[in-house]
């Protein structure tokens, strides 16, 4: 497969995952905001920005709907939902021939829908005079469309090298974003384990779980009995839940193994070592040990390893030097 | 051709067909009628079939065809507007029909022409006999911007410079096919020929079966074997790729379509690297050697080291790899000198010089503005002539004298005086018209024909081509960028 094609598939997938994640976080926070007094809004939205890695030029200035607008429609903001969708679509357009018609159709319809001028007018009006309905419907639509895209990707595209690059992009983005999300909640949930329950905690815990689409899945394992330790254990270490970091990293590892088998050669030893190590680390970790140690450090080390994997993929499959390739 | 398609009842006379009410003949050759209400027999079943369809059924089929194009993403990009404006190439439902005798002559004529033009290119990039013998003026060749001195003395595989050519033919008032333009660089449009046919077969299956239409579907296969036959020696399993400028190019759909149909990789400049005069493509499993490149990037942009240094679409060093014989590009570099609009006037002489034959397909009468007498004639008759800039294509940079305002003509006259080498003029030709569906009625519109010629180990022309239509009433401009459309072309066996 051409390196450029692999690159585009990988980023198409990463951007869509990012768009979905951002949309979900907005949706959850807009919803939970309604249950609490305006004095807590600052804390909530600052944490929201932290959990997205503090996007450049976006600041909390007291109006949640303006912030929502900046994070959905502002194309000058590279982290906005719209920017991510546009970039995903642009990547898809460059490899139009490599993806299935169904995939292209879903992604292109989503793009056409979110770039409709009427929608923009509507959202601008909404930012000035909020009703709260329009963003929720819009965000839901984005999430649905991306889920549909992932469905047709799995069911219409051959599960070959290209598909594995899509998997890698999606799950690497997810692992990294989820680690960042947990880090943003660290101070509220795990920093003071002896803290008594005030009443608002339940809302916060549920918010975190819902931000990772984990609420229902969590309840099936632990019942609705929420506790910060169990939440951390579930979102970080659950083996079967598709948004847990452990699950995501394992998917990345498996996809990379397939790519190595397809692309052939032993060049991938280093990449296998890094992805295998983090996967094993999560597979054999215990939540008690993590909480006894420095949780923030632990979560940061996961993000660090995700970015090492990203660089190794680039170094190996996309942006390698000619001399090295010819020598090997 | 089988006439059983028309119903058992007596066939309708043209005068009885209501959709022909606005079908007016003029001095141009009409593809369907040989005279007022006198039908050419090969159009009879088509017309009968159409007359029997209720109007809403015709519209339904038209919509079905349009939708089919849209869903397949068969679009092109229009330049000079908002970036990435994609449009469907307008499509006319009625096929243009060419009889086997007419086609046989076209086929022989095109074979003769491409053979002679290849010999010409070989000659001017080597000994230059034709220049020494003063058949073609030296300055015309050397002053041509498409002349590439880098090609001098180079042995190209099989001596094939132009492997893929799309020649524009028009029909004169007499019905004779003549050559309007040779496209020897990167001719486009073949994907429309192929997709038009596919849509047509789906929309009019019975009609298609009753005419005995010669197939064209093997075009991509022939193209692939043509490219394979040009591979460098010692590369028995050549890696063939199609080089595209990328998604913003107006013909990107076609590049992707052809690559997919041939099962070859669609690459862009940034996918290729040249190291030690060998061309590779970057893949996830490392560098893979490339042997043949079907390039859809112009000479100017293909190698910043040898041609335009500011190009980012190309591959640095590709020309040297080509010179070293490690990779073949089709078409070769510098072929544009032979489809220069000024050189066009000499093609009949070129054919005569190399093959000792008279041209089978004639040229349109052409005035060269470099020659004083001819320039004076052109300037004096600007209101009757079509003036074309030699380096432009796609209907850009031309003046259609009879349709232009005096101001436009005056402006063009200045341009001609300033740079005579850059302009040629031709009489305004009212080329042939074919029936088109306009609303619910049939009306005649001007059409041309672009057959595609392939030249590898032998010359192959799939029977057919792209018939382009000037959909605006009275218009003579068929270019897709200027409001033209296309229709399927049926060559009968």
Report on the structure:
The complex is a heterodimer of chains A (328) and B (493). Chain A has two domains: 1-157, no CATH class; 159-328, no CATH class. Chain A has 16 helices and no strands. Chain A has helices at 3-33, 41-51, 64-72, 81-94, 101-114, 117-128, 133-156, 161-189, 201-211, 215-222, 228-237, 245-263, 269-283, 287-292, 295-318, 322-327. Chain B is 29% helix and 23% strand. In chain B, helix 2 (55-71) crosses helix 6 and helix 3 packs across helix 12 (347-355). Chain B is built from 14 helices and 25 strands. Chain B is globular. Chain B is an alpha+beta fold and 493 residues long. Mean pLDDT of chain B is 89; it is low at 1-9. Chain B has a five-stranded mixed beta sheet.
The gist of it:
Chain A is an all-alpha fold and 328 residues long.
Share of residues in strands of chain B: 15-25%
Helix content of chain A: over 70%
CATH C-level category of the largest domain in chain B: Alpha Beta
Would you report the number of β strands of chain A?
0
Task: Give the strand order, joined by hyphens, for the main sheet of chain B.
Answer: 15-7-6-22-23
* Backbone shape of chain B: globular
SSE inventory with pairings:
The complex is a heterodimer of chains A (328) and B (493).
Chain A: H1 3-33, H2 41-51, H3 64-72, H4 81-94, H5 101-114, H6 117-128, H7 133-156, H8 161-189, H9 201-211, H10 215-222, H11 228-237, H12 245-263, H13 269-283, H14 287-292, H15 295-318, H16 322-327
Helix pairs in contact in A: 1-2, 1-3, 1-4, 1-7, 1-8, 1-9, 2-8, 3-6, 4-5, 5-7, 8-9, 8-11, 8-12, 8-15, 12-13, 13-15
Chain B: E1 33-35, E2 38-39, H1 44-52, H2 55-71, E3 75-78, E4 85-88, E5 91-98, H3 100-124, H4 129-132, H5 138-142, E6 164-171, E7 177-183, H6 190-203, H7 205-210, H8 219-229, E8 240-243, H9 252-262, E9 265-267, E10 272-275, E11 278-283, E12 286-289, E13 292-295, H10 299-302, H11 318-323, E14 328-330, H12 347-355, E15 362-363, E16 367-368, H13 372-380, E17 385-389, E18 398-400, H14 406-418, E19 423-427, E20 433-438, E21 441-446, E22 452-455, E23 459-461, E24 467-470, E25 484-491
Parallel strand pairs in B: 5-25, 7-15, 8-9, 8-13, 13-14
Antiparallel strand pairs in B: 1-2, 3-4, 6-7, 6-22, 10-11, 11-12, 16-19, 17-18, 17-19, 20-21, 22-23, 24-25
């Amino acid at each position: 497969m051409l390196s450029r094609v692999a690159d585009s598939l990988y980023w198409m997938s990463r951007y869509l995952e990012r768009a979905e994640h951002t949309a979900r976080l907005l949706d959850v926070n807009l919803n939970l905001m309604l249950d609490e007094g305006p004095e807590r809004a600052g804390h909530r939205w600052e944490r929201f920005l932290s959990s997205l890695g503090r996007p450049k030029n976006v600041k909390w200035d007291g109006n949640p709907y303006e912030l929502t607008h900046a994070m959905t429609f502002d194309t000058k903001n590279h982290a906005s939902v719209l920017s991510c969708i546009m970039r995903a679509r642009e990547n898809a357009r460059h490899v139009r021939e490599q993806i299935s018609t169904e995939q292209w159709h879903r992604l292109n319809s989503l793009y056409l829908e979110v770039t409709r001028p009427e929608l923009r007018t509507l959202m601008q009006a909404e930012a000035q005079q909020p009703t709260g309905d329009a963003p929720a419907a819009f965000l839901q639509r984005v999430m649905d469309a991306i889920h549909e895209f992932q469905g047709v990707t799995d069911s219409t595209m051959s599960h070959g090298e290209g598909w594995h690059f899509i998997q890698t992009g999606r799950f690497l983005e997810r692992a990294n974003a989820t680690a960042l999300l947990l880090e943003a909640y660290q101070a509220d949930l795990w920093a003071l384990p002896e803290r008594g329950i005030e009443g608002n905690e339940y809302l916060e815990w549920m918010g975190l779980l819902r931000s990772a689409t984990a609420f229902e899945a969590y309840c099936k394992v632990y019942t609705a009995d929420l506790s910060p330790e169990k939440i951390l254990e579930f979102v970080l270490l659950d083996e079967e839940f598709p948004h847990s970091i452990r699950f995501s990293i394992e998917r990345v590892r498996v996809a990379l193994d397939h790519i190595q088998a397809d692309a052939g050669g032993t060049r991938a030893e280093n990449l296998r070592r890094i992805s295998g190590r983090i996967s094993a680390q999560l597979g054999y970790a215990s939540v008690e040990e993590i909480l006894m140690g420095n949780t923030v450090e632990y979560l940061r080390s996961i993000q660090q390893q995700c970015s090492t994997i990203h660089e190794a993929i680039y170094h190996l499959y996309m942006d390698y030097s000619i001399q090295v390739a010819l020598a090997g | 051709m089988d006439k059983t398609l028309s119903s058992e009842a007596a066939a309708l006379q043209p005068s009885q067909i209501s959709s022909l009410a606005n079908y007016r003949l003029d001095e141009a050759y009409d593809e369907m009628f040989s005279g007022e209400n006198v039908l050419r027999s090969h159009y009879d079943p088509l017309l009968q079939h159409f007359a029997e369809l209720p109007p809403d059924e015709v519209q339904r089929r038209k919509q079905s065809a349009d939708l089919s194009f849209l869903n397949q993403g068969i679009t092109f990009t229009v330049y000079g507007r908002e970036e990435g404006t994609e449009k469907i190439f307008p499509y006319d439902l009625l096929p243009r029909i060419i009889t086997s005798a007419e086609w046989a002559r076209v086929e022989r004529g095109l074979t003769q022409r491409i053979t002679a033009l290849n010999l010409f290119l070989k000659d001017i990039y080597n000994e230059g006999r034709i220049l020494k013998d003063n058949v073609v003026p030296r300055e015309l060749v050397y002053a041509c911007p498409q002349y590439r001195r880098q090609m001098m003395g180079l042995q190209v595989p099989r001596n094939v410079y132009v492997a893929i050519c799309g020649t524009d033919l028009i029909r004169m008032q007499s019905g004779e096919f003549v050559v309007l333009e040779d496209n020897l660089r990167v001719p486009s449009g073949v994907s429309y020929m192929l997709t038009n046919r596919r849509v047509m077969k789906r929309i009019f299956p019975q009609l298609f079966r009753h005419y005995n239409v010669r197939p064209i579907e093997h075009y991509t296969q022939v193209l692939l074997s043509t490219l394979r036959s040009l591979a460098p020696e010692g590369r028995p399993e050549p890696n063939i790729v199609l080089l595209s400028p990328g998604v913003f190019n107006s013909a990107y759909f076609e590049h992707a379509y052809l690559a997919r149909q041939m099962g070859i990789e669609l690459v862009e400049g940034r996918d290729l690297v040249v190291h030690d005069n060998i061309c590779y493509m970057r893949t996830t499993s490392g560098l893979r050697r490339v042997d043949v490149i079907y390039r859809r990037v112009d000479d100017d942009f293909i190698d910043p080291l040898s041609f335009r240094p500011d190009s980012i679409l190309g591959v640095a060093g590709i020309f040297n790899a080509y010179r070293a014989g490690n990779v073949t590009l089709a078409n070769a570099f510098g072929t544009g000198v032979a489809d220069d609009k000024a050189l066009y006037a000499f093609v009949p002489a070129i054919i005569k010089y190399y093959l000792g034959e008279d041209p089978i397909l004639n040229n349109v009468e052409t005035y060269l503005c470099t020659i004083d007498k001819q320039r004076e004639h052109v300037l004096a008759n600007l209101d009757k002539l079509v003036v074309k800039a030699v380096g432009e294509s796609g209907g850009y940079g031309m003046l259609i004298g009879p349709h232009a305002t005096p101001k436009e003509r005056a402006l063009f006259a200045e341009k001609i005086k300033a740079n005579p080498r850059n302009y040629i003029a031709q009489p305004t030709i009212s080329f042939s018209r074919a029936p088109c569906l306009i609303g619910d009625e049939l009306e005649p519109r001007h059409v041309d024909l672009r057959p595609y010629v392939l030249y590898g180990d032998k010359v192959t022309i799939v029977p057919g081509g792209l018939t382009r239509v000037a959909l605006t009433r009275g218009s003579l401009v068929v270019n897709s960028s200027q409001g033209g459309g296309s229709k399927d072309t049926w060559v009968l066996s």
